[in-house]
Structure formats: C-alpha cells, structure tokens
Design brief:
Strand order of the largest sheet of chain B: 5-6-7-3-8-9
Strand content of chain A: under 5%
Helix content of chain B: 25-40%
Distance between the termini of chain B: 39 Å
Number of strands of chain B: 13
Oligomer: heterodimer
Strand content of chain B: 25-35%
Radius of gyration of chain B: 23 Å
Largest interface: A-B, 20 and 28 residues
Distance between the termini of chain A: 21 Å
Radius of gyration of chain A: 18 Å
Order of helices and strands of chain A: HHHHHHHHHH
Largest sheet of chain B: 6 strands, mixed
Largest sheet of chain A: none
Chain lengths: 244, 302
C-alpha cells in the first residue's frame, strides 16, 4: 500500500458528493426517517420485543457496506481501468495494485465510518443501545466489509465498462438490500426464506450483527458463511480482474 | 558500451496476425531515436513491449540491460513514458498529479520548473478533467519526465498541440537529451522526426524498412533531389531518360521536373550546356523526409 496514493484517493473520494451522500450519509438518514415514525419506536413482538428502530440500526450499517461494495467501488475500479489510469500507473515503480488497494481501503473506511455514524445517531437520537457484544459486532462488521469489497471487485472484474458495472451493480444491489433485511428484517422473515437469506453474505451479516447487538457471540454458522463468501469472492476477483 | 535499448527480432501477433514481425534496433545512450511508420505498422506495439506493457511472443527486449516484463518495477525506475492514450482521475488537479507521481521515484525532478517549462504553471489548481487536450498532453509529458528517467519513451508526443506548443515541446525534448537522457520517439510528423531525431527506424508492416539518420534516409530514397526548369528550346526525351541516377522525369507545359541525386544535377547541367540551352527558373531542391518516407513505405500509405 502506497500512502501517497491512499491520501490522494481519500481526497478524490471527498470530491464525489454522490458517493459521500450514498455511502456515508444515506444509511443514517434512512434510520432517522424511519425512527421519526412513532410506531417504529414501539416494542414489536415479532422482533422479540425490540423496537423496529433498534432492528434498523444493523440494517443501516449493512446498507453502507452494500452502497460502497456494489455501487461506488465497482464504478471507481472499472472507471480507472476504462480510462487507462491503471495502465498509466503500470509505467511507474508503484504498480496499479496500489491504486486498487487504496480505493478499497477508502471505500471500506468510509463504509465503516458510516456504520459508526448510524450507531452513534441511533444511540443519541433514538436511544438504541450500543452493541452489547462489541467484539463480536466488530468481527461480523469487518467480515461483512471484506465480503462487500470483494463483491464489488468481482462486479468490476466482470464489467468491461462503467455502464456495465452500473447495470450489474444495480442488479446485485436490490437482492443484497433485501437479504440485509431492508424491507423485512431477516429475523421476521418466514422460516424457509430466512434459511436461504442467511446463506447470502448480507443475510448472514444481518443475523450476526443482530446477535452481537443483543449481547451474544455471533453464531459461527453466520460468521462461517461470511468468511466463505469473502474468500470465494476475493479468489474470483483476483482470477477475473483485468488490468486493461 | 551496451545500448540503452536493445530490441532483437521482436515478434507479437494478435489473433494470428503478426503486428510486429521481427523488429530489431538498438538505441544508444543520449540519442533521440525515432520510430516512424504508417498507421497500423506496429510502432505502438513495439514501444509497448519496450515499456513492459506487452509481453512479446518472441525475441528479446532490454532496457539498460533489464527485461521490461520480468523486471518491470526496476525498468519503471529508469524509464519514463507518455502513452498515446490515457487519462488521470478527472478530479485530480495538475499540482496533485505532479506531486503524486514525483513521490513514486527515488530522485524525482522538481515539479515546479517542469510545470513552468510546459506552460502548466497557471493550471496547477485545475482538475485533469477540465484541462484542454493540449494541456492534458503537456501534463503527460511532465509525468513522463518527473522521475528523472534515463530513458523516455514518447508516443505521439505533440499530437493535439498547437504549433507554438509543439515547438516549445521540441526544445524541451532537446534539452532533455542534452542532459544525457535517451529518447525513443514515436511520431508521424516528418518535421518532428527531421528536427529531433538522430536516427530513425522506419517501420512498415511490422518490420524495419530502413534505419538511418534523417539525412541518410533522404539520401537513400530514389528521388532525393528534385530539379525543375523551363528549357529555352525543346530537349530530347531520350537524352533526359539517359541521365544517371534518374528516378523520374515529368514534363508539363514545357516545364521539366526530374528527380534523382546530385549526380543527376551535374549531368543535366552538362547536357544543357552542351546543347546551349538556357534553363529558365531553375530550381534544385532536396527531397524532404516526407518524400523519403513515402518512397520507403510505397503502396502502404493509409
């Protein structure tokens, strides 16, 4: 990792208002809007006595990861390849992999920052308890971030142009949002559906975060699913990615 | 002393079609070496093999003794390059680009005078995406030089530059050479090749068609010297056709145009004197590199 490249990529990310909004602000904004609905602040039996706003904090956290993973990261990486920026980088002693890893580090950091923002705003504005099992929560979050970035790299590897990247990104985006529980929290899904959803990276991440928020160590089955996805997608990205 | 760039029997095919088909040349320290050729002749593929961006199918490429593919990173430390087509991040400013690329090298040039020299001093805060084509081109020239390389490869150096910027850039390249940097230049501007290059390889259909100094290339082309005049009395066609080293004869509206060599010039003057014919409006001009190039790549011009 080249620190000058990393600093530059951070600076460039700040110059993209769209990316800043969707990755950093939107998840928390959604939480604030939902939390402002009075019924979202009443305990709900189907959520095991939690209020919907409590259940939506981990979901907001996952939205940040999905936004950076399947929307902004593949756009950035594919654009760098399409515009010949990676090619120009190959002529320097710092290889284009430095640019890719810097871009991933930036996207990952911003998404994790966005997660922190959702947790803090949830705590301050809606009295949502901070995760009772912070170690387990952090582990699940980092694994989910790794899977999200690897997914974004696979999308970029499979897309020749930014247009294709944005099409594939959108096609992947909605199922991922569904699996994260944006429309129905995973724990409230019908049994058969939730079994399937928990095999997807964000379904497993949603359950793992729920468990850690409630004070339990996240189930190894969920962490195992997340790890498997992260490894599989990373291998796929490394195999399919083209520098030109 | 070994050559700075050595290319030996280089071959590269795409989809079964040989784009580079046995190219060999050697570039010596401190010279400006030109690669000239029609579109699609294999010029860019050749220099991309030198830059290590492409893996040759056959043959050998060495840059200061390094294999540009196997020892890519080491090669990148001694070789600066400007690509025919590439971009930077659209929201990166000129100053940030210069500082970033300077940070990649152990002993970079000071970027401020370089930017000044390339007319970018008042554009430092401008983002890459807002620069004109010529300004982007000048920035890429700056980035090729910023690592203080021993060798620079410039592909279509002055394409997109206005005549003024083109001349300034030529001066800059001459200064760079005077500092001992070896320059490999791909161009299709004859004026540029003639002005800058110490030696030129003309590449045609993936092969080296000729390799010489610009003057040498002109000399070796069949019609290196062009003589034209209007004779005061008709001349015998046969006597003209018998002139030594004659490449072509043309007669139009009483004006005769011959191309050949200095030998032809002497012979035609003798011929005119013998017949007591005056040559009105006599003009003797050297053919340009343009003529030599067309002659060397005959029938291949696109």
């Amino acid at each position: 990792m080249n620190t000058a490249v990393l600093r530059t990529e951070f600076r460039l990310f700040r110059r993209e208002p769209g990316a800043v909004f969707w990755v950093f602000l939107f998840p928390t904004l959604l939480l604030v809007i939902l939390g402002s609905i009075p019924s979202f602040r009443d305990a709900d039996k189907s959520l095991g006595g939690l209020r919907p706003v409590d259940a939506y904090v981990p979901i907001a956290v996952l939205i940040a990861l999905i936004m950076s993973g399947v929307q902004t990261l593949p756009q950035a990486l594919t654009g760098y390849r399409e515009r010949g920026i990676l090619r120009r980088m190959r002529l320097t002693p710092v290889q284009p992999s430095a640019l890719l890893s810097a871009q991933m580090a930036v996207q990952g950091t911003v998404a994790l920052g966005s997660a922190l923002l959702a947790l803090v705003v949830g705590r301050l504005a809606f009295d949502v308890r901070l995760p009772k099992q912070p170690g387990g929560y952090l582990l699940a979050l980092l694994l989910a971030a790794a899977a999200a970035l690897a997914l974004g790299s696979v999308v970029s590897a499979l897309s020749r142009t930014t247009k294709i990247a944005s099409a594939i990104g959108s096609a992947v985006f909605f199922p991922m949002m569904f699996c994260a529980g944006v429309w129905i929290p995973v724990r409230s899904m019908p049994h058969a559906m939730s079994r399937v959803v928990q095999l997807t990276p964000f379904g497993a991440a949603a359950r793992a975060l729920d468990q850690a928020a409630a004070g339990h160590w996240p189930g190894w089955d969920h962490l195992g699913v997340l790890t498997a996805w992260a490894v599989l997608l990373t291998v796929g990205a490394a195999r399919w990615f083209r520098w030109e | 002393m070994p050559s700075v760039i050595e290319v030996t029997d280089l071959r590269k095919s795409y989809g079964g079609r040989a784009v580079v088909d046995g190219v060999s040349f050697a570039v010596e320290e401190g010279e400006i070496f030109g690669i000239l050729g029609p579109n699609g002749a294999g010029k860019t593929t050749t220099v991309e093999c030198v830059e290590g961006l492409r893996v040759p199918d056959g043959g050998r490429v060495r840059v200061t003794g390094l294999d540009p593919v196997a020892e890519h990173e080491k090669t990148a430390r001694v070789l600066g390059a400007q690509l025919q087509q590439s971009e930077l991040q659209p929201k990166l400013t000129v100053r940030e680009a210069l500082e970033l690329y300077a940070s990649f090298y152990d002993s970079p040039l000071d970027w401020a005078p370089l930017a000044e020299r390339l007319g970018l001093a008042d554009k430092l805060a401008t983002r890459f995406g807002k620069l004109s084509g010529g300004q982007q081109q000048r920035l890429f020239i700056a980035l090729a030089l910023i690592g203080n390389p021993r060798v620079v490869v410039l592909d279509e150096l002055t394409t997109g530059l206005d005549p003024r910027a083109r001349r300034d850039t030529w001066e800059l390249i001459e200064d760079v050479r005077d500092r001992g940097v070896t320059v490999l230049l791909v161009t299709h501007f004859m004026e540029e090749a003639q002005r800058l290059c110490d030696r030129i390889a003309v590449i045609d259909k993936g092969r080296v068609a000729a390799l010489d100094t610009p003057a040498g290339l002109i000399r070796r082309s069949a019609g290196a010297t062009v003589i034209s005049f209007t004779p005061s009395a008709p001349l015998d066609d046969q006597a003209l056709a018998a002139l030594p080293a004659l490449a072509s004869v043309e007669s139009k509206d009483g004006r005769i145009t011959l191309s050949g060599t200095d030998e032809t010039v002497n012979a035609v003057i003798t011929l005119l004197a013998r017949h007591r014919i005056t040559a009105h409006q006599l003009r003797v001009v050297d053919a340009t590199l343009d003529d030599a190039f067309l002659d060397l790549t005959k029938g291949e011009a696109v």
